[in-house]
Amino acid sequence: MSSVIRIGTRGSALALAQSRTVAARLEAAGARTELITVVTPGDRSAAPIAEIGIGVFTSALRDALADGTVDVAIHSYKDLPTAPDPRLSLAAVPSREDPRDALVARDGLTLGELPAGSRVGTGSPRRAAQIRALGLGLEIVPIRGNVDTRIRKVHDGELDGVVLARAGLARLGRLDVITEVLDPIQVLPAPAQGALAVECRVDDVDTEHLLQSIVDDTATRAAVGAERALLAALEAGCQAPVGALADVVEDLDADDRIVHRLSLRGVAAANWTFDSQAEGPAVELFRASATGDLTEGEQLGRALAAELLELGAGTLTGDEHNR
User: Fold this and answer.
1) How far apart, in Å, are the Cα atoms of 323 and each of 79, 126, 222?
2) Torsion angle, alpha carbons of 44, 46, 51, 57, to 10
3) DSSP tally for the chain: helices H, then strands E
4) How far apart (Å, rounded) are the C-alpha atoms in residues 26 and 31?
5) Is the pLDDT of residue 1 over 60?
6) Which of 43, 301, 322, 323 is the most buried (most CB within 10 A)?
7) Choosing from 79, 85, 101, 160, which is the catalytic residue?
8) Beta-carbon contacts of residue 104 (< 8 Å; ≥ 6 apart)
């Protein structure tokens, strides 16, 4: 190919690592690529995500794509608002990294081994609510900053542990710092955690087809689509911290043939804010699960959201969904 595909990316180490994986796939197929760094409002602000709004890490990238500054934009999928942007096409969802959360703690400790009163940092009400619901008596401390900044708070003794996405640590080659990978039964990850979203302009059919043929992973797209549909439906009914995880599983059809289906779990939490500590009211978690056809992920997500709303999720309050 003679033309260069300009890939828009944030400038953080993690964003660059993620974008390089997509660029490598394209270059292996014969394309020429160039990474172009775009500064987003989220990069310029140290305020909590809840204060600066949804889309702070993606809006500038999307604008640069729409105005032709770049040809492709790569996002952490969980950062994207659930409402589609009519200017753009979600051309590819690459194969997903392990979506689970991970603990980085002092002295190699696991979550259950940290003494009551230990200070555990996270920027996510979703993580905070689920950890507090475990009843371990931990103090949850709101933090922001890149991966190295957060890990340094543990090494410097400011915190006893931090909870991060395992996928980010894997992409940065930092799996060695993990002291425990959290079981989704304990802490369900954010919708689309570990997945990337690769967008192009809606009228750029050639780039869209190229990305679909080289980068897109059908199973990941189906799973993440179900998780995001659950989140989108819950946003209409509540603003609670929400977790979701879909897995592609094998099942038998009516003729005993092996088929692939989606298994989706969801959780929404009540009685949590970062002002609440271990002595506050108990966190209430609403959980539900369902299985459906691989081709009907979005319908499955909406159905599970409806079940969570019936359980009581419509009455919940919170300050953030999936950071």
Assistant:
1) 7, 8, 21
2) 40
3) 10, 13
4) 5
5) no
6) 301
7) 79
8) 150, 151, 154, 161, 162, 163, 164, 177, 178, 179
Residue matched to tokens 């989140």: 231
In this structure, the strands spanning 32-37 and 4-9 are: parallel
Q: How far apart are CA 63 and CA 40, in angstroms?
A: 10
| AA identity, residue 316 | L
Confirm if 125 and 241 have CB atoms less than 8 A apart.
Answer: yes
Report d(CA 171, CA 194) in Å as an integer. 10
User: 3-class DSSP state for residue 104?
Assistant: strand
Q: Residue 319: is its pLDDT beyond 50? A: no
Strand order in the sheet with 284-293: 242-252, 258-270, 284-293
pTM for the model: 0.89
Residues 104, 120: Cα–Cα separation, whole Å? 9
Question: CB under 8 Å to 137, separation ≥6 — which residues?
Answer: 116, 117, 278
What is the Cα–Cα distance from 154 to 157, expressed in whole angstroms? 5
- The answer to whether 80 touches 197, Cβ cutoff 8 Å, is yes
Does residue 13 sit in helix, strand or coil? helix
Chain segment 30-58, per-residue pLDDT in tens: 999 999 999 876 665 555 555 545 566 79
206 carries an active-site annotation? no
Q: How far apart are CA 122 and CA 143, in angstroms?
A: 5
CA–CA distances in Å: residue 281 to residues 56, 121, 131, 277: 31, 20, 14, 9
From the list 47, 17, 52, 51, the residue with the least C-alpha distance to 35 is 17
In this structure, what are the phi and psi dihedrals at residue 137, rounded to the nearest 5 degrees? 70, 25
Q: Quick one: how far is CA 91 from the chain centroid?
A: 18
